Amino acid sequence: MIIVTHNQHKYMEYEEIFSRKGIELEWFNYEYPELQSENLNEIVEFSLKAVSKILNRPFFLEDTGLFIDSLNGFPGPYSSYVQEKIGNPGILKLMEGKVDRRSRFISIIGYYDGKNFHYFEGILNGYISDSIRGSNGFGYDPIFIPENGERTLAEMSLVEKNSISHRRKALEKFMEFLKNSMESIK
Ligand code: IMP
Fold first, then answer.
1. Which ligand 1 atom sits nearest the alpha carbon of residue 62?
2. 136-172 CB burial, b ≥16 within 10 A, e <16
3. 181: how many CB neighbours lie within 10 A of its CB?
4. What is the CATH number of domain 2-185?
5. Cis preceding linkage at 77, omega within 30
6. What's the CA gap between 107 and 5, in Å, rounded?
7. How far is the CA of 72 from the centre of ligand 1 (A)?
8. Is 64 in the pocket of ligand 1 (CB under 6 A)?
């Protein structure tokens, strides 16, 4: 299976899961164009179309957003831009004094099977922490505490994050789909 991403951390998270399942993962390190849109599905669809024009084989890519309830879902589809411009300190500043700290990561995997596009969603609910904690992971991991826990994702090992993450949940649906499509052509 080929993953298209420019993000080494994402690749490493996928690689850990694929290798445990005994499936080979090939990394196509490519920074594809991303649509600026309110809708994660539209962003993924746009990227899938762009990459399918240059890569004439089945592949998948994924887009993730952090949605914070008390900020009306911000940064959501603008998560990359916001991380780059104000980072985790900026988010904590926006959250100062907020009692409701509920938020969620949403990942959408887009898969091109050589002909059609398919989409798989994974959600991880949690809270924005009061401070930046931990040095593992990437992006918003140091300020995100999964529900029913106390540690941020950046305080967890890659294996532990992978056992509960939005990415993992989307991937499980994707793998189930692949298994079913293999069975239907047997
Ligand atoms: P994208 O999916 O690569 O567009 O990522 C959007 C933004 O969310 C980037 O700033 C990433 O660093 C961040 N991000 C994506 N996935 C994760 C994650 O699993 N944990 C923390 N931040 C993430």
1. 2
2. bbebbbbbbbbeeeeebbbbbebeebbebbbbbbbbe
3. 11
4. 3.90.950.10
5. no
6. 14
7. 18
8. yes
Q: Whose CA is nearest to atom 16 of ligand 1?
A: 64
Q: How far apart are CA 112 and CA 106, in angstroms?
A: 20
Task: Report if pTM > 0.90.
Answer: yes
pLDDT tens-digit readout, 106-150: 999 999 999 999 999 999 999 999 999 999 999 999 999 999 999
Measured CA to CA, the distance from residue 133 to residue 160 in angstroms comes to 16
Ligand 1: centre distance to CA 183 (Å): 33
**Distance in angstroms (rounded) separating the CA atoms of residues 54 and 63:** 19
The domain limits of the chain are 2-185
Q: Which residues are catalytic?
A: 63
Task: Find all residues with CB under 8 Å of 115, minimum gap 6, and list them.
Answer: none
